[in-house]
Structures are given as C-alpha cells and as structure tokens.
C-alpha cells in the first residue's frame, strides 16, 4: 500500500467513515473509496455492495479482477448516565469488542472512582455531541430516567441513524417519552426504532442482569443486519 492511500485510510478511520481499498490485482494500482465517493458502473455497484455488507473479497468486471478490502468503523456504545447498570455494562461491552463512552453531567455520579479506566465525560450530552457526533456505527443507551439528560441524545441518535437506540424505563414512562419526542418533531416511524423498555426480555432484575440484557439486544441488532441496513437508509 502506498503512503497516500494509507494516509487516506487513516483519515477516514479517525473520522469513522466506512471506506474500501480497491486494488487492481494485475496492475497493483489501488484507490481509496469512501461511502460518499461516486464510482460509476459495475465496479461502483460492487464497492457499494461490499460497504453495505462489510465483507471484503474479489470481484471481476470486464476481465479485470479487483480486491475490495472493506474497513468499517469499530462499533461503539455511547451510554448516557453513569449509573449502576453502566458500571456493569462497561466491562462487558469492552470484552465484546465495543468502544464505550459514558456521558453524565452529574459530577457526583461521573467519577473516576466509580468508572476506572473509562472514557467518561462529566458534561451535558448537548455539548459533548457537538464535538463527538453520533453515527450509524454507534449504539445509544439512555439510562438516567431524566428527560433533561436523556431526550436530546435520543433524538440525535435517531437523526444520526445509530444502529441501536435504547432507553431505560417502564412501559408507562416509555410512552411518556415517546410523546415528548413526538412533540419535538420526531415521527412515529423513527420513534418505533427506540428499544423501550430497553434490553431483551430475560427477566433481568439486578443491574448486572439488566446490563447483560442490553448488551445482548445491541449485539442481536448488530448481527441481524440492522447495523448494515442503517448505513444505506434514508
């Protein structure tokens, strides 16, 4: 790989943009193509399909064989709320291969003592997400029960097409949440994407069990193809 291609790949990786390195097998010439790049014809369709599926492989077009090497952003979980469930979910999610960030403006909760070695931000989500925006490779988990903290990142997650959006709360509190978000202009189709009550129904009771149910639902959503589909929707 030449230096220019490597620099482009690193640029897109840092920006969390899906990208492919497309190499002409015979000549060895490579180009870097992001999901925003327009490549016409059958090759363009093959690249789009590879970015959609996340799978690398060979493709032959007009007697020329290309290898399409796909690089998708590492999946991450953004947790809103430095609560007991978050303390259990953090190490589990890391073991499962996710990058994890926790945001909570309540400095009594968001402490290094409670979340050692965590990417922990004690600030309002509105401010953090301006600097670290959401994307389709992110799962958003809202756990504070406080509309002043949870509602903004939930709406941003829907607008950013996060592959998973979940919120803690009873069915009654979830219905109230949906009404608030609808009043803010979120349509019913988008609201239906929110997992609430959050997590798979495994009868979870303790914070650790609830964390297991949340992580299982995130992984199920990602592996079912919902994450990939979200990249091409809208």
TrEMBL record:
Pfam families, per database record: XdhC_C
InterPro entries registered for this protein in UniProt: MoCofactor_Util/Proc (IPR052698), XdhC_Rossmann_dom (IPR027051)
Sequence ranges assigned to domain XdhC Rossmann in this UniProt record: 78-218
Gene3D superfamilies xref list: NAD(P)-binding Rossmann-like Domain
Domain of life: Bacteria
Alphabetized PANTHER family for the sequence: ALDEHYDE OXIDOREDUCTASE MOLYBDENUM COFACTOR ASSEMBLY PROTEIN, MOLYBDENUM COFACTOR INSERTION CHAPERONE PAOD
Protein name: XdhC/CoxF family protein
Source organism of the structure: Agrobacterium bohemicum
